[in-house]
Amino acid sequence: MSSSPRVTKAVIPAAGLGTRFLPATKAMPKEMLPVVDKPAIQYVVAEAVNAGLTDVLMITGRSKRALEDHFDRVPALEHNLMAKGDEKKLRSIQEATELGDIHYVRQSDPKGLGHAVLCAKQHVGNQPFAVLLGDDLIDERDELLSTMIAVQERTGGSVIALMEVEPENISAYGCADVAAVNGVDFVRVNGLVEKPAVDEAPSNLAVIGRYLLHPRVFDVLEHTEPGRGNEIQLTDALQELATADGEGAGVHAVVFRGRRYDTGDKLSYLQAIITLAVEHEELGDRLKPWLSEFTASLDK
Ligand code: UTP
Residue 84 is part of a domain; what is its CATH number? Predict the structure, then answer.
C-alpha cells in the first residue's frame, strides 16, 4: 500500500481549438455546446465535485469568457427570476454556480493536451491529481473516477481509463498495451501509442478522457517533444512514465464498461444528445413517440 496524499484537485483542459466542430466552435469553446439543457463542461465539473474533488482548475484558451461566465453568478438574472417566482429556473442557473470554487489558467497557445496539463503545474503542486477532458462525458449513474482514485492511492503511480472499442475504430484514440495483475480488477499498462494505424494497434483498448496523474508527469512533460499532429501529447508522457522506475513511475488502468458520451465531434455529439434527451425526466416521454415516428418515416 502506498502512502500517496489524498487526491483533491481536478484539472479540466478546455483550451483546444475544437476544429472537428467548426464552424460552431469558431467563437465558442466546444465544451460550452449544450448537451440537452446544460453545457457539456457542467456535467464534467459536477462529476469531479461528486467524486470529492473540490478544487477545480480549468485550462482555458481564447474565448474563455463563456466558460468563466457560466460558472459565475448573474445577479440581474437571479433577481428577475426571483421576482417572477420562477423557482425552477432559478435553481437551474444556481446549479452551476454552487459547484464550488473554480480556478482558471490560460493556455495561450494550444500546443496539445500534454502542454495543457503542464499549465496546471503551479496550481497542482506536488500531489496526485485528476484530469477530466471537458468534451468527454461519463454517465453519472456509472462509477469511474472514485475507482481510479482508489487505484491511484493503492499503486502510487498514474492511472488511466480505457474502454473497449471496435478494432477498426482504434485509430481515433490513444491505445494501450496492458497486462493483467493478479488478484485485482485493474491492469498494468506496458505501453501506449497515440492514434495507431489499425494493423499496428497493440489492443482494442482506447484511452478515454479521465486520468489520475502522479505529479512526476510534470517533469516528463517539461521535456516531452511534440508528437503526433505536432502536439505535445499526454499519451507520450504517460508512455515514458509506464516504463520508468522510481517514485511516481508506473501506469495502471481501469477498464470502464459504463456509458460514455463523446461531445467532441459532430456525430457522437448528436448521439449523446439523443441518448440523454430520451432519458430526460421532462423531455423523454414527449421525445420518444416523436422519435419512433420520425425513424419509422425514414424507413419508408
Ligand atoms: P482534443 O484533441 O479532443 O481537442 O483534446 P481539440 O484539439 O480542441 O479538438 P479538435 O481535434 O481540434 O476538434 C482533448 C481535450 O484537451 C483539450 C481540449 O479542449 C479537449 O478538452 N486541449 C487540447 C487543450 O486544453 N489544449 C490543447 O492544446 C489541446
Answer: 3.90.550.10
| Amino acid at site 277 | A
Residue minimizing CA distance to atom 23 of ligand 1? 16
Nearest to 251 by CA among 273, 274, 220, 293: 220
Pocket probe for ligand 1: among 12, 17, 57, the residue whose CB has the most ligand atoms within 8 Å is 17
Q: Are 266 and 25 in contact (CB under 8 A)?
A: no
Residue 72 structural domain: 9-264
**Structural domain contains residue 1:** no
Structural domains of the chain, count: 2
CA of 17 to the centre of ligand 1 (A): 6
33: its cell numbers = 455546446
CB-based pocket (< 6 A), ligand 1:
13-21, 59, 107, 110-113, 115-116, 133-135, 264
Write down the pTM of the prediction. 0.94
Residues for the chain: how many in total? 300
pLDDT tens-digit map of 13-69: 999 998 999 999 998 999 999 999 999 999 999 999 999 998 999 999 877 889 999
State in Å: Cα 113 to ligand 1 middle.
6
